[in-house]
Every structure is written in structure tokens, then in C-alpha cells.
Design brief:
13 helices, seven-stranded mixed sheet, five-stranded parallel sheet, 434 residues, alpha/beta, single chain
């Protein structure tokens, strides 16, 4: 009771269930005292509720939360929410805390579907990247799967093994998918190992989580920080850290600015067009982005493969000439263009039509600067740029130093005035609606 005799609503008890761990005595007691229980249909059926308990079957979330708020205002009401696994991990706790405040919640977590799936696979998951495709654009999950050796994808309608496999067939065909269905159900639980092509070729029942693995790297060294590989300690690496031909490499000063404008991150997809030895694509991959390196020379393609392997990242080499070869690629978040010759304006236009966020162009010819600016602005980008002129310290005889000038390079970039979103507005609740 509060001052004045008003009643403070009891906490909403949130119980994680459904991945094989039985409810403990405290969770069972909370259910036995409940007057209102909210959850997916299968959770409500499995809960063994009394006949006088009101049930709210989760469909659209907002109406369910409205009913919870209504019942909380009733005297003696006890509300319990049943969710899958750990409801604080991509789960309904976020929505409840936003609506009612964290202090109104009594959360009893279960084993998350991700932990259960990795346990069934016999693999640690402190080095896994977890991404939700539940109510989200699948492209983010696809990009994470391409760039990282161990990914867990929480699935959703229209974003399950079939759709994920179809996107990975031509982009990461070497990945293996472990599809975990009905986790915790002794009669229907299944873990199936399939290739992306096999996943794309069939229909699937309700699925909890898909593990996407590069099995050659499924066991990483001991970790201190969980999640994706640590961000690089250094970037804009020296040219000597890449194999390249006749100084045909984007200099580190240019790469430093290009990376700052590209902003590569986990979940992004980046094109490096006119890649040469692939230095920009590799640096983007070191930040966790999925990257392709488009190069027209066969020896350049081999250098890209060797350089990516040397730096321990995934970069897909694409052999061909831009802009023609670009039509076969998925839309990028950001594009770096480091070559192009007389075709540069048409390449910039082709890239600008497809880029969701940013296009960065490095060029030496003054005459092409107006053409590149026009190509970017006509495509709806806000354009800016600089002329980079740097002088590096160079030794002279007698233990003295001079300044050695590098060739000046124009770096132009365009940013979309309205960035394309990375997904829908629905929160990715883990299993709550399944």
C-alpha cells in the first residue's frame, strides 16, 4: 500500500521457457498464483494453467501490452508473461521495460535459443555474432554471415533458412547452416546440417535459430571479450603490409580518409571497385563489414585472395570490369572507387544508383573532378571532397631526414540525404510470437 491507501501494482513476472529447461519452483509458483498469463499459444498450452486464469495469446504486440496495462490496474491482479528462452536477449523484456519501466518487471530467464543451439552443436559461442532477422531486413543477417565465421541468426516470417540460404548460395556457398527447430520439444526438436543451396531448396517448419558456420574456423582462440572479433588496433595500414604491383595500391593517407567516410561496420556490405590489391576492401573487412573487391586483372584477383588470407578476413574477389560486372552484386551500403580511367563517370553513376549510404572516389586527374561531382549530385548525394597532399619523412645520408612528397590525390565523397534504413520497425522478439 502507498500513502493515501492506493494499491501499487504487483510486478509483471516474465518467465523464460521452451528450450528444454524445466521451470523451477519459484517460476511454477508464480504461474500458480497468476490471474492473467500472456504468451504464445504453444507456451500457454504447455503451462498447465487453471481454468480460471485469463489467457492473452500474443499476436500483435501493442494490443497485448494494452491488455497487460489494463489488468495491472485491477486489484489483486497477478500478470505473468511466458516467453522463449531468455526474454532479455532479443526478447520481450525490452518492450515491457519501455512500457512499464524496468522496476515493474520480475524476470526469470531460461536458456536462450542461441545457447541451446550451440550446445546441441557442441560448440562454444562466446566468439559468435548474434543477429536477429525477426521483423528485420534479412540483408543485415546475410552480410554478417558473409563476414564472420560463426553467426547465429534468430529467424522470423519470411526470414528463415530458405531465404537465408538463397542469399548465401552465390555469396558464401562454403558456409554450413545448422538449422535448429523446436528446441526443447522432446518430440519435435531437430538440428539439421545443410548447405545454403539445400536450405534454399526446401520449405521449413517453425525454426528457432540458424547457425551459419565456416567450419574451418569454428573454434577460435580463447576470448576475453565476447562477440565479434575485436576491432583492429590499427587501420590505414602501411603499403608494405599488402602484396601489390608497381605501387598500384591506395596509399595509407588516402585509405585513412576513405575509411572515415565509408564507416564500415558489422552488418554492412561494401564494394571496392578498381580494387587493385584489395587494400580498401580488406580494411573494411577488418572492421566487420562484408566486402567484395572488383578487379579486372587476373593477377589482381590472386593478390586480393592472398592479401585477404594474410589478414585473416573474408573478401570476395569479383573478376570483371565495372560498371558491367556490378549488376551481379547485391546493393552495397558504401562504395569505394579507386580506379576507372575514362569510364570513371559511368562507374560512379552506376555505384551511386545502388549505394544505400555513401560513395567515396579517389582520383588523380583534375579534369575528372567536375564529372565525378556531377555524377554524385545528380544521383541525390550531398557531395564534398578534399585534395590530399602529404609528405613523408624519408632518411638521408648522415642520419638526417627530408620530406618526400607523395602524389596529390582528390578524395570526393557523396552521402545520401536520406539514408536507407537497415530494416523494419518491428523489434526482434526471440521466439515470443512463435
Amino acid at each position: 500500500m502507498t500513502e493515501g491507501g492506493s494499491t501499487t501494482p504487483l510486478a509483471i513476472t516474465v518467465i523464460g521457457a521452451g528450450t528444454g529447461t524445466p521451470l523451477d519452483a519459484a517460476a511454477r509458483a508464480a504461474l500458480d498464483l497468476a490471474t492473467v498469463v500472456v504468451g504464445g499459444e504453444r507456451h500457454l498450452l504447455a503451462a498447465g494453467l487453471g481454468a480460471d486464469v485469463e489467457r492473452i495469446v500474443l499476436g500483435p504486440l501493442a494490443p497485448a501490452l494494452d491488455l497487460v496495462e489494463k489488468h495491472r490496474g485491477e486489484e489483486h491482479a497477478r500478470v505473468v508473461v511466458l516467453a522463449s528462452g531468455d526474454p532479455g536477449f532479443f526478447g520481450i523484456v525490452r518492450a515491457l521495460a519501455e512500457r512499464f519501466g524496468p522496476q515493474a518487471l520480475d524476470v526469470r530467464p531460461g536458456v536462450s535459443s542461441v545457447a541451446a543451439a550451440f550446445a546441441k552443436a557442441g560448440l562454444p559461442w562466446d566468439d559468435a555474432v548474434v543477429v536477429s532477422a525477426h521483423g528485420r531486413d534479412l540483408r543485415t543477417a546475410v552480410n554478417v554471415c558473409r563476414a564472420h565465421a560463426k553467426t547465429a541468426v534468430l529467424t522470423g516470417p519470411g526470414a528463415g533458412p530458405k531465404e537465408l540460404g538463397a542469399e548465401l548460395v552465390h555469396r558464401a556457398a562454403s558456409r554450413v547452416l545448422l538449422v535448429a527447430s523446436a528446441l526443447g520439444d522432446p518430440e519435435h526438436e531437430r538440428i539439421e546440417r545443410v548447405t545454403p543451396a539445400e536450405a534454399a531448396a526446401r520449405e521449413w517448419d517453425a525454426v528457432s535459430v540458424v547457425l551459419c558456420l565456416d567450419e574451418t574456423r569454428s573454434l577460435s582462440p580463447v576470448r576475453t571479450v565476447a562477440g565479434p572479433r575485436p576491432l583492429p588496433q590499427r587501420w590505414a595500414l602501411d603499403e608494405g603490409e599488402f602484396s601489390h604491383r608497381d605501387s598500384m595500391i591506395t596509399k595509407f593517407e588516402v585509405r585513412a580518409l576513405a575509411l572515415a567516410r565509408l564507416g564500415p561496420r558489422t552488418g554492412d556490405f561494401v564494394w571496392d571497385v578498381g580494387a587493385g590489391c584489395g587494400s580498401v576492401a580488406i580494411e573494411c573487412a577488418r572492421f566487420g563489414a562484408a566486402a567484395v573487391a572488383v578487379e579486372k586483372t587476373a593477377d589482381g584477383i590472386e593478390r586480393i585472395r592472398a592479401n585477404a588470407a594474410a589478414h585473416g578476413v573474408e573478401v570476395r574477389p569479383v573478376h570483371g570490369s565495372a560498371p558491367t560486372v556490378l549488376s551481379h552484386l547485391a546493393d552495397p551500403d558504401a562504395v569505394f572507387i579507386g580506379g576507372g580511367g575514362s569510364e570513371l563517370p559511368s562507374i560512379v553513376k552506376a555505384c551511386a544508383r545502388r549505394a544505400r549510404r555513401t560513395v567515396v572516389v579517389a582520383l588523380a586527374a583534375l579534369d575528372r573532378v567536375p564529372q565525378v561531382r556531377a555524377a554524385l549530385t545528380e544521383s541525390g548525394f550531398v557531395c564534398d571532397g578534399v585534395l590530399l597532399q602529404s609528405s613523408r619523412l624519408a632518411p638521408l645520408p648522415g642520419e638526417v631526414t627530408r620530406l618526400a612528397a607523395t602524389n596529390p590525390v582528390f578524395v570526393l565523397w557523396g552521402d545520401r540525404t536520406e539514408t536507407v534504413g537497415a530494416g523494419g520497425d518491428l523489434p526482434p522478439y526471440e521466439g515470443v510470437l512463435k
